[in-house]
């Protein structure tokens, strides 16, 4: 029986394992070479940066304000009477001396005529008393009148002179009262309220018309007790509801020393020296008061904040080398689009502002000044 051997002719064994190993080694080296080449050819990632700048934290508090005049006068008649006419309306601009309202002058004219009649009677009585005094003086000089009769005539003449002076003062008073029947403006201004109507009987001193002087305007606010110190020391500005983009400088001019018994707030008046004609009386506004605390923080974009559960951090860029590093930071406040950082970064550092979730510490970056679309 013959046995056949699998050996090929010549007695050489196949080298299949060695060939397979060589092939695998060649493929591995090629893959490593391709990976290194790909890594070397990978471009730097462009990033938009923001520069860190620390400044004092200035919390801002706002109050609802109303625009009021600095001086507003309540004007009323100086005599009692019935209103005959009201000559102005709310919103009218008046000059000093402009008639505002008139009273019925009937009774006042009668009083003036009565005073004139009494003045004439006093003059007549004085003339008679002086004539009798002269006669009594002549009779006494001749010895035909007694000393007592002379003294009586002299006293009667002095009384007549006093009655004449009183009648003259009475005439002046009634003339003044008659002139008071016409209410006039004491200063240039605008009418803000009319409190009387024709036919109404008013008392002396009762407010008839309210006039605001044409001068400096003020923002009036109610301040809670807890914010009094901030209002006293802070920097204030006013923005009208009709034009929120424009701000007017404001200065605290007056702060009520006592709280309102109902609201428990303090009335504060802020002068607005730069307010022009576009700021109308009665407008609504927002008064903002800033007060420094001494603490400094950097205001940075909210999109720059990176947090994967280990706390907030920022990617800091080295512009010279293109390297990035993640630094933990301390956040004191979050705003709608910004974040306030007090610690973790230094003044002047450049941090990545957008796309922080896609960064890798081993990757190089390239700083760009603006986004391109």
Automatic annotation (TrEMBL):
Belongs to the membrane fusion protein (MFP) (TC 8.A.1) family. This is RND family efflux transporter MFP subunit. Keywords: Coiled coil. Residues 74-209 form the Multidrug resistance protein MdtA-like barrel-sandwich hybrid domain. GO terms for cellular component: efflux pump complex. Residues 220-291 form the CusB-like beta-barrel domain. It comes from Chelatococcus caeni. One of its GO terms (molecular function) is efflux transmembrane transporter activity. Residues 105-177 form a coiled coil. The keyword Coiled coil applies. It comes from the Bacteria.
